[in-house]
Give the backbone structure.
Amino acid sequence: MMYCGSRPLAYWFKSEPISAPIDYTEGSAVDRAFLSVLIIIGLSIVVRRKVHWSRVLKDNLSVFTLFAYMALSVLWSDYPEISFKRWVRTTGDFIMVLLVLTEANPFEAIKTLFRRSAFVLLPLSVVLIKYFRDIGVAYTEDGSATMWIGVTTQKNDLGYVAMVSCLYFVNNIAAGWAKVKSRLWLDVLFLMMALWLLAGSSTANSKTSVATFALGAGLLIAFHMLAKDPTRMIGRYGFVVALTLFFVAITTVYGPVDESAVTALGRDATLTGRTDIWKAVLDIGPRNQLLGRGYGSFWIGNLANDVWTKVYTPIQQSHNGYIDIYIELGFLGLFLLGCLIWSAYTSIRQTVASNPEYGAFRIVFLAVILIHNLTESSFARPTQLMWFLFLLVCIAVATPIASSPRARTIWSIGSAVSQ
């Protein structure tokens, strides 16, 4: 998670500025070796754990189907070797998620993961921004504007890290407020640090991350206040989120309904140029609307250059996760992604009955990631923080606890079943 939330290792060893990108056709030998070792270690641990793999496959059929289709799409990619490498890399994300969810208590493992990552990434980002500005701050070409990047490579990436950390600490504070107020001072301190990073510099920040944090924090607090009937709350909340996604999707296609509403959020009517990018990407198209161009193959070579000439900036994503899935995996990929989202939502509703805090935590992060992908792109992007967290809240694993004769089988997603 710390790797996903910071810049690639190769950047830490480069003498060039952060604006000089790594050759994406060759990749980085340092990162490739590091991730390969992680995948091998993670896989060796997961396969030795006493997990009901047949049940895992059944409960996560939508996840396995999506990954299988991503692998199959390599066959019609214009760059099959690069596509296959990217598929292996995102399969590593899947293995890392299984490593967490096959712990004896998955929710405690997730909270430990968030906490330890925040304890490293947040203070280090503050130190880099304050005292090592050549590493922690990026500048526009004319030097008139600054962007805080901290341990990441871009202000939006730092926004993801800060937003995710803020939500974790808000959940901790809300859950422990009535019980252990005296022990929450550290959570409050790190929440303040994360909020400072989320606000960004005086000239630039990640407005999408700010907006999604406000939504997620409000929902988390509402869940803790209405914990007496969490299942009913989840049902109402699911309808609201679906309605919101539908409204934003319509405005994405047909343009903002009210320009003043967009400008009130600190954006122009083009969402800081995003609608121009969407139009340029969709004009080039997926080649085959049903199957797409192949996983991980669009932002490479001439296709990427064609987009750059239309929007006058070198980018590696369309700033919309649903459009990127459509371009690379077609309507079939979008359908499989929708099946995964619906499967996760259905399972999380069952989890709420046995562990309301865990269920609320997962449903809020699911909603935040879905909405976040309306103006940013993280779906199926290897070692991307939001993609890693998306898998973390969607995958279901049954893990037996053998600590006592009266131990229970805990489900990371799904109902709790007593032995």
Q: What stands out?
A: The chain has 17 helices and five strands.
